[in-house]
Amino acid sequence: MKQILVTGGTGYIGSHTAVELQRAGYEVIIVDNLSNSSVDVLDGIEKISGIRPVFEQFDLVEKDKVDAFFAKYPNIQAIIHFAASKAVGESVEKPLLYYRNNLVSLINLLECQLKYGVANIVFSSSCTVYGQPDHLPVTEDTPRKDAESPYGNTKRVNEDILHDTIAANPQLKGIALRYFNPVGAHPSALIGELPLGIPANLVPFITQTAAGLRSELKIFGDDYDTVDGSAVRDYINVVDLAKAHVVAVSRLLGNKNKAGYEIFNLGTGNGVSVLEAVHAFEKATGVKLNYKIVGRRAGDIEKIWADTTLANQELGWKAEKGLEETLLSAWEWEKRVRGIN
Ligand code: UFG
To answer: 202-233+269-305+317-338 falls under which CATH superfamily?
Structure first.
């Protein structure tokens, strides 16, 4: 069985990807420092797939530990690198923490890839690298813009680190996947998104409001140039997103990549406004949400959605799940976590 290292594998997207890799016949080895996730996620993965992933708890910023890990597991074929700090607001307060965590961990992995002969890496990037694009939908050729936050800048710089390292080392191959807005949970409700504290992202805030943990959802802005004035995003189901990682790994392992370094947008291709998402949640779940329109959130862009042609054609991958089904899965997960029937 081919071994895949999933860094950040107890996190939100990492855990869903671990399950899909196992279903596709890969052996998953998870490395996570548990700074923003729980070891219990391994139970959820095991309940779904019947297989408990190998788990090593350490911080990828610690070079000696990364090196010892690769010495211990000499058969790893590919890495999917999710592990990163990801709170936009926190990154503005603590830029050095973000640059250290997100840049040093990738550098350590790449250095060990060269040392131990691990050829393949898939990197978690973000549509945040596009900023507010001049044209929509956004293709992979759209020029990147200056990041709005240190977090966003780490995604951009990490893409550059990957690009330059692969250019200088043809034995390495990499794929950067630019996620739009990942939402929802596994249909089993055994794994999902579990933010610590007050959620910054829309869907966890919606489900926590519906569950009674938050008194009301604030909708940030209704004066954008969009269908109803609220901001527009491309919300992609996390299981669909996870499946794209399996395709990306198989592409690298099968030498089907067309260049040493490739980039793909992962979205649905549909723009959805915040108000549309709220109403889709209410329709899918039958739960009325208490919401209020407030002013714009600093740093937010007005609208973005993906042109998915490249991923559809080259990866043979397409987002399949609809928004209501996806929001229902997020609600089922929230209910399970909170013990609501
Ligand atoms: N929103 C609300 N109320 C909330 C939370 C969010 O109205 O309580 C709105 C936001 O203003 C935005 C939309 O819902 O219009 C989506 O917001 P999220 O925070 O869920 O997602 P973002 O589009 O802001 O985040 C994306 C990526 C991040 C990345 C960020 C960069 O998911 O990884 O872009 O700006 F960091």
So the answer is: UDP-galactose 4-epimerase, domain 1 (3.90.25.10)
The dihedral formed by the CA atoms of 95, 101, 103 and 106, expressed in degrees to the nearest 10: -170
What count of other Cβ atoms lies within 10 Å of the Cβ of residue 175?
27
3-state secondary structure of 181: strand
- In this structure, are strands 54-57 and 291-294 parallel, antiparallel, or unpaired? unpaired
The closest residue, in CA terms, to atom 14 on ligand 1 is 202
| pLDDT at position 341 | 86
CA atoms within 13 A on the CB side of 15: 27
Pocket-forming residues, ligand 1, beta carbon under 6 Å: 86, 88, 126, 128, 148, 151-152, 181, 200-202, 205, 217-220, 231, 233, 274, 297, 300
- Where along the chain do its domains lie? 3-183+235-266, 202-233+269-305+317-338
pTM for this model (two decimals) = 0.98
User: How remote is the CA of residue 220 from the centroid of ligand 1, in Å?
Assistant: 9
Distance CA 89, CA 149 (A): 8
Write out pLDDT tens, residues 242-290: 999 999 999 999 999 999 999 999 999 999 999 999 999 999 999 999 9
Q: Which numbered atom of ligand 1 lies nearest the CA of 88?
A: 36
Positions of the chain with pLDDT lower than 70, given as ranges: none
Q: Compute, in angstroms, the gap from residue 227 CA to the centroid of ligand 1.
A: 17
pLDDT of 239 reads 99
Per-residue pLDDT reduced to its tens digit, 112-141: 999 999 999 999 999 999 999 999 999 999
Q: How far is the CA of 201 from the centre of ligand 1 (A)?
A: 5
Query: Which residue pairs, CB below 8 angstroms and at least 24 apart, start in 86-90?
Result: 86/36, 86/151, 87/151, 87/200, 88/148, 88/149, 88/151, 88/152, 88/200, 88/299, 89/149, 89/200, 90/151
- CATH topology for the 3-183+235-266 domain: Rossmann fold (3.40.50)
